[in-house]
Amino acid sequence: MNRLLRTAILGSLALSITACGHKNKGVEADLAASKVTTIGVNSYLWRASLDTLSFMPLLQTDSNGGVIVTDWYVNPNVQTERMKVTVTILDQDLRADALRVAALREVNRSGAWVAAPVQAATVQKLEDIILTRARDLRRAAVATK
Asked: How far is CA 44 from CA 61, 92, 134, 145, in A?
């Protein structure tokens, strides 16, 4: 009896393992669309954020927490103004609400840097650029599979 029970258990395990070997192309494409990542956040948003901010010096990056902080960047064409950007990726899914961009702006007045308002359109434009780049990266990854 004990031998029969062991054989039945081993047989059911073997059947379940062989069922796991079946590959479904639709599932692979869905995984490429959202959560295929070795970091704590969506890899497409992370890469797109780094690509978009590559012209600015990076102060801090945390791929597990999804935070990118740049150092102050002075545009060579406008020496009296500098910007600092923080990008936070909030989710593992590639969605617009999984991205938050914050920017600080300062202007040089009589040799001292003074805080100045950042136009909302500036932050929105950065978010749009990052999201567009992330979608392009995702499309390229799905097309190669």
From this structure: 15, 9, 5, 16
In angstroms, how far is the first alpha carbon of the chain from the final one?
49
- Name which of 70, 52, 55 is nearest 137 in CA terms: 52
Residue 46 near residue 39, CB atoms below 8 Å: yes
Distance CA 38, CA 105 (A): 33
Query: Residue 65 in 3-state DSSP?
Result: coil
Closest CA to 131 of 74, 82, 91: 91
pTM for this prediction:
0.72
Question: CA-to-CA distance for 33 and 27, rounded, in angstroms?
Answer: 10
Encode pLDDT of 86-103 as tens digits: 999 999 999 999 999 999
Express each pLDDT in 22-55 by its tens digit.
455 554 555 454 554 467 899 999 999 999 999 9
Q: Any bridge partners for residue 84, and if so which?
A: 104
